[in-house]
Amino acid sequence: MFGNLESIGVKCGPVATGWLTHLYLIGCDSVAFDVYPDQQLTTANPLWLSGAKVVSEIKLRAKTATFSEGLQTSPAGASYNPQISVPIPSLASEIVEWVYRNQNRRFIAIFRDTAGFCYMAGTKSNGLRLSWARSVSQTNAQQLSVSGSNWHPALWIGSIDPEVLFPSKEFDYSFDNSFS
After folding, report:
1. Which of 5, 24, 124, 130 can bridge 110 by disulfide, Cβ–Cβ 3.0-4.6 Å?
2. What digits encode the pLDDT tens for the residues 90-136?
3. In which element (H, E) is residue 7 found?
4. What span, in angstroms and rounded, lies between the C-alpha atoms of 76 and 164?
């Protein structure tokens, strides 16, 4: 044999259509502790909350929100760049107010895709940054995005259900807007 064969990937299974179904943003200042991966990128209990314990749920319209992540290498090492984009085809003034209140914060994002996989991006010490854009042309629309850079890719987590992740139930939803 010419060498060791390492097979990676999935041959069959559910097709991920590429959209997000759920998105929660947690301010880094509300996190007491988060899990850093060593050799595994999967964890059951990724973080513990403290302080204000505010979890912002961003309600998503079907087939609109996306997640992408890239790897860049440089002499300083490797970095992963997660980005979540949420298009909002409406005026939604409450989003403008939420962005204004949270524009200088960093976030940890917990989200699920259409295939049912759950993820966590960002860390307490290096959270995702918020960006926002508004366009008034043929339609009124807004684009909410969070992105960042980290030394490891987004973690796979067991669930995004707040009842499972945060069993103390001592947090509030500060932003709950249905875009459907």
Report:
1. 24
2. 777 888 888 999 999 999 999 999 989 999 999 888 999 999 998 87
3. none
4. 38
Alpha helices per DSSP H over 37-179: 93-102, 162-165
What are the extents of the domains in the chain? 20-173
CA distances from residue 118 to 24, 69, 138, 173 in whole angstroms, order as listed? 11, 14, 35, 20
Tell me the HSE value of 98 on the side-chain side, using a 13 A CA sphere: 21
Longest distance between any two alpha carbons in the chain, whole Å: 64
What the block records as the tokens of 162 is 């707040």
Segment 12-48, tens digit of pLDDT: 555 556 799 999 998 888 887 777 666 565 666 667 7
Q: How far is CA 101 from CA 76, 79, 94, 96, 176, in A?
A: 34, 29, 11, 9, 15
Minimal CA–CA distance to 28: which of 6, 51, 8?
Answer: 51
